[in-house]
Please model this.
Amino acid sequence: MIVSKLRPLVVSSVLRTLSYGDGVSILPRQLHRVESHRSNSSAALVGRDFLSLKHLSTNEIEQLLWTAADLKSRIKDKKEVFQPLLGKSLGMIFEKRSTRTRLSTETGFALLGGHPSFLTTSDIHLGVNESLRDTAKVLSGFCDIVLARVYKHSDLEQLSEHGTIPIVNGLSDLYHPLQILADFLTLQEHFGSLKRLKIAWVGDGNNNVTHSFLMGAPKLGMHLRIASPSGYEPDKSVMNEALQLAAKHGTEIHQMNDPMAAVHRADVIVTDTMISMGKEDEKNKRLKDFQGYQVNEKVCG
Model:
């Protein structure tokens, strides 16, 4: 199986689970009839930020995936009207534009009864016209939750530090957790279980998607092989933390330069764009450096 930026509607799962009213979980009664660890995990997530999968336990990630699958079945398949976020407001900060993230976020939040407010760089300038501290306070006064796509992960951390509402990472230079949750849900639907799957990553290892895979795959029992050109390996601190997670959860992570070795007997091959947003000035160099790292018939043969 090949995964390349697959996006099931997983955003609404995160937004619903993190949202709260009067300090009380708004999860419906039905969800509290699942096994106890899932109930405890959902309660533990209420009101928290979601900046990276590194901050979530195995049970908490599984809870988000279960909730996403449940919402997809009830709303998309059964056409059920379910609006637990009625009266809630979502602030959407998009320093980096994205068709899929905007549509999935606005659609998901609206389907659950909430009101999304889209803010571009024309509407909000993080740390320019006012400090991030002041922006966080303003957002906390008007919104119940914020999803932000930013250039710098440190901006999300500052919004989290100074705000009083949950901050969700819609993308940063370091992590892209919503994308990986969407990929995990797709794999779970296809294979039935994520445990013991062998994932091969081919391409840029030093990007937000790879880093999110490294923070999530070990916790769910998946093995990961990353093939990248020299100079495009994952961030060392992220890799070191991922190796510790792999040792803790009994999984394997291997980093290499040979894409054919990475995909050998893999269950899933994953890739991403060679030229991420903000890297356009490196286009010619990257196209040259990533020769042989395309997911094509040769690699999949």
Residues 4-8, 20-37 have pLDDT under 50 and may be disordered.
